[in-house]
């Protein structure tokens, strides 16, 4: 990092004090003492559950040597447990309204149950891309996987530094998450190996591939002051116009991923995420901090998710037969995919602009599509017709919550099972020791009797 970048970094206190003057979630709801109690309870809850789940993961490690299918199912089971930890954590410490939208491509795939929960019927195997607003984005996307009953089969691409967090990092490694150095020479080998595994994992006794939701944030980082500057520099370097509400995406890793999964995945799902109340010119990470979200009682009033689905067959991934053979053909293919991704991100930026203006993804103004397309003519040739959501489009309004409170017991089951087994083993060992002691006593008694018989010259029987 050069000195110019250092001078551009905004002090955290500047943003915090500015935001606190009128926080979108209102005044602080919990005083200092209650915040302290909430912090302690939060820490005990999260780290106790994490240790229990990590212990369960370790118990399943020997399965890898015996049967990999059972090993992957075991790890998926523990991943389901961690999803429940996040869901209960959100429900208890940071309850918020979730609004889930979708365009025509996901029509019929978003449903609301009689008790108000969200249920989805998205593809069981897909690549999921999203803009990156705040560090909590992945929690809400994991909750979406829970609504689709594939929360044990989500895979996330993360910064490599997270792998070294004690317990948490090792647990995520066992989950099969992909950790990136942001150095392509290192990342390519790691990604190729992991994606090859995901192309081959099957359930025990079956030949079909396991479900898989592979989550990527093409922007590479969350929206922040430094991220905004980085996007502006990339725009200047690449000749692109910078975006207003999103960061410019990078295409290399996503293109590599889609090519590797081309034969086993049918769709890419795109999610546009927005948090209610982030003031213009500010950033969600500075408004909804860990403290305000979980301890001050000021989580986002609502989080909105807008979904689109793209068939893999519609995405330009490979060189065309008409391209020249050689490096130029690959360069043309990469450019076509880059244009496709940029079109999607410009549309995403327009959706975000709609949200920032009206507080909703639903359309309000006539002619918006025409104006957008006039200002941002498509660069790709995939034929996709962008449209804003209609005002009468059904929106699922719900909350992050489990299907039933007793689901939490699943997290404790492995520990209870191990405790029961250990108790039985201890009881059995004590029983064996008691029998061995009794046998030894009888032998000692027999030897004593034999000694007395020899001493007095008469039998004791």
Mean pLDDT: 84
**Rg from Cα:** 29 Å
> What composes the largest sheet?
8 strands, mixed
The best one-word shape is elongated
Strand content: 5-15%
Helix and strand pattern: HHHHHEEEEHEHEHEHHEHHEHHEH
Low-confidence parts, pLDDT < 50 over ≥5 residues?
A: 1-19
Task: Describe it.
The structure is a single chain. The longest helix has 48 residues. Strands 6-5-7-4-8-9-1-10 form an 8-stranded mixed sheet. Strands 2-3 form a two-stranded antiparallel sheet. Helix 3 packs across helix 7, helix 3 crosses helix 15 and helix 8 packs parallel to helix 10. It folds into 2 domains: 401 residues, no CATH class; 52 residues. The chain starts with a helix and ends in a 5-residue tail after the last helix. It has 461 residues and is α/β, with parallel strands linked by helices. Helices cover 49% and strands 12% of the residues. The chain is built from 15 helices and 10 strands. Helix 7 links the parallel strand 5 and strand 6. It is elongated and about 120 Å long. Belongs to the 1-acyl-sn-glycerol-3-phosphate acyltransferase family. Keywords: Acyltransferase, Membrane, Transferase, Transmembrane, Transmembrane helix. One of its GO terms (molecular function) is acyltransferase activity.
